[in-house]
Amino acid sequence: MANMVRRHTTSARLWRAGLYTLLIVAALVYLLPLVVMLLTSLKPLDDIRAGGLLSLPSTISFEAWSKAWSSACTGMRCDGMSGYFLNSIAIVVPAVAISSFVGALNGYVLTKWRFRGANLCFALLLFGCFVPFQVVLMPMARTLGWLGLASSTSGLVLVHVVYGIAFTTLFFRNYYVSIPDEMIAAAKLDGAGFWRIFWRILLPVSGPIITVTVIWQFTQIWNDFLFGVSFAGFDSQPVTVALNNMVNTSTGVKEYNVDMAAAMIAALPTLVVYVLAGKYFVRGLTAGSVKG
Amino acid sequence: MSALNIRHVNKTFGSTQVLKDISLAIDSGEFLILVGPSGCGKSTLMNTIAGLEPVTSGEIRIGDEDVTWHTPSERDIAMVFQSYALYPSMNVRQNISFGLEMRKMPKAQREEAVSRVAELLQITPLLDRKPSQLSGGQRQRVAMGRALAREPQIYLFDEPLSNLDAKLRVEMRTEIKKLHQRLGTTIVYVTHDQIEAMTLADRIAVMRDGEILQLGTPHEVYNDPVDMFVAGFMGSPSMNFLSVTLVSQASGYALQVHDEEQGGTALTLPWPVERGTQELSARVGEHLILGLRPEHFLEDDAIQETSGEGTRLEVTATVVEPTGADTLLQAWLGGNEVTARLGPKSRVVAGDRVALRADLSRAVLFDEKTQRRLA
């Protein structure tokens, strides 16, 4: 706490030095896997066979990245991760958008248009957060088959939306609870109806929670493997499944640099989303609506 | 024709009845204040008028239209909330014109309304700011502007001043009164602050436990309270209640003030002859409650010219609180600690013996058990 009066004695300085050392070491330990991945992905195969994990590459080569993207073999096909990357995007974008929207709507109804049993409804939805993925596999497979959505991108979107609504509702409900009911009452008296209040009053102040929800849902769905491997068809597999197929392939030479590059490619979008949207996390957009 | 007519309105939440058979009529241009302690149902009554809460039974009419089951937006009503409830994502201009836009008023007319209201409330320089960039008093003005722009039949104010600091509250109070006088609007105003009620209202409805105890002008409610609750709630410092026994004397009735510590009678106050009623004769010998407002005591020196008015009392000051405009004095009178309001020139300090006169011509008498007014 820099804004506190403190005595600068020698022992205090030593403590501080020790504390920072510990924190730096911990940070390095956590960064190490990423460093190893990055280094390995940039090395030619010879370097990998010759040296240790942490040795620097003799020449920096992006060949592994380009191979991972466009020509590495995943199972039977040898056209890289690019197609699967696009599959993932085709799943994630609608799934995040729909589940976030439905969550916002649920949160709005559960807090501002309360009905008999709203609390029970919310409790049941909350229960959905604790249902493990594995439990829903069989019933979901039946449902998808019955709906004619088995092995399709739409099917996967549906699965992720259904599974995600519990979380998105929780997020939005807890955020909207803190928005004063008087604001909604004022809008009602001003003549706004259900949807107008949602679009014009509530959504414009939902920035922080939309960000949180989108980051959460994007990360969850992008990183999902189990639903992808269970419900995707041959040409709708997400990038996580493709990565597994590529890395676990048992034929030919093991190309660690390509594996690492592929893993980085698979992980990159979630990092990018976090970096781009993270700064909105902390913004309090409701400031000033009530007494401040 | 009354602007707002509430007939036999009941409201229950679960098994608790929060509004009990409320009937009320407000004339066009009238300023009505609902006042009472928290939990008395005044805010619930306001919400039923606004249509934010359905009534359990009864009828609400605005003008000559039955609006009991109309939605809030279908009633021609605007409301100013305690928390102001401005839309944080919109600037002041948008906040004020939102209600007009929802009512599909053309843009040119909306802009005209916004500038009219902004000028009236002197917020024109703030029109492009967001609520978060405004001070409490400015937000209050915007909230009022939002209501005024719509020009509804009835304005509802839900404790609009209670979030402001003391000085601003007094300023805004005056401003609301001026606005009302200038625009002649019909206003229902909820507050728990009896000073706001006294200063603003044309009529006051004092509420407790979901009932209207008394409905009358500020003067009536203050000087002719129907029971001890109304008497004690209105006025600050509140009315002194003394436990007395009514006795009959040759010259009329008198009140013996009890002294619980020493037992017996501390002093006897003659009851004004002209205020003796038939009902009092049946009560002779009974314990009653005498209500005396602090200003019904006068320092003896102050009224020497008119000596003979009121009853002379000698008391010992226990606490003296100079407020500037006047001096409040607490003293024991029999077994009761009473507060007296003395003039600003009073130089009394705690511990002094003070000669007071009690002016019983404006005092009130209550039944000890029912707490209802007797005389």
From TrEMBL, chain A:
Belongs to the binding-protein-dependent transport system permease family. Keywords: Membrane, Transmembrane, Transmembrane helix, Transport. It comes from the Bacteria. It comes from Chromohalobacter beijerinckii. CDD domains: TM_PBP2. The chain crosses the membrane at residues 20-39, 84-105, 117-137, 157-176, 197-218, 260-282. It is found in: Cell membrane. Residues 85-277 form the ABC transmembrane type-1 domain. This is Carbohydrate ABC transporter permease. PANTHER family: ABC TRANSPORTER PERMEASE PROTEIN, GLUCOSE IMPORT SYSTEM PERMEASE PROTEIN GLCU. It is a multi-pass membrane protein. The keyword Metal-binding does not apply.
Automatic annotation (TrEMBL), chain B:
GO terms for cellular component: ATP-binding cassette (ABC) transporter complex, substrate-binding subunit-containing. The keyword Acyltransferase does not apply. SMART domains: AAA. The keyword Hydrolase does not apply. SUPFAM superfamilies: MOP-like (SSF50331), P-loop containing nucleoside triphosphate hydrolases (SSF52540). GO terms for biological process: carbohydrate transport. GO terms for molecular function: ABC-type transporter activity; ATP binding; ATP hydrolysis activity. Pfam families: ABC_tran (PF00005), OB_MalK (PF17912). Gene3D superfamilies: 2.40.50.100, Nucleic acid-binding proteins (2.40.50.140), P-loop containing nucleotide triphosphate hydrolases (3.40.50.300). Keywords: ATP-binding, Nucleotide-binding, Transport. Residues 4-234 form the ABC transporter domain. InterPro entries: AAA+_ATPase, ABC_transporter-like_ATP-bd, ABC_transporter-like_CS, ABC_transpr_MalK-like, ABC_transpr_MalK/UgpC-like, Mo/tungstate-bd_C_term_dom, NA-bd_OB-fold, OB_MalK-like. This is Sugar ABC transporter ATP-binding protein. The lineage of its organism: Bacteria, Pseudomonadati, Pseudomonadota, Gammaproteobacteria, Oceanospirillales.
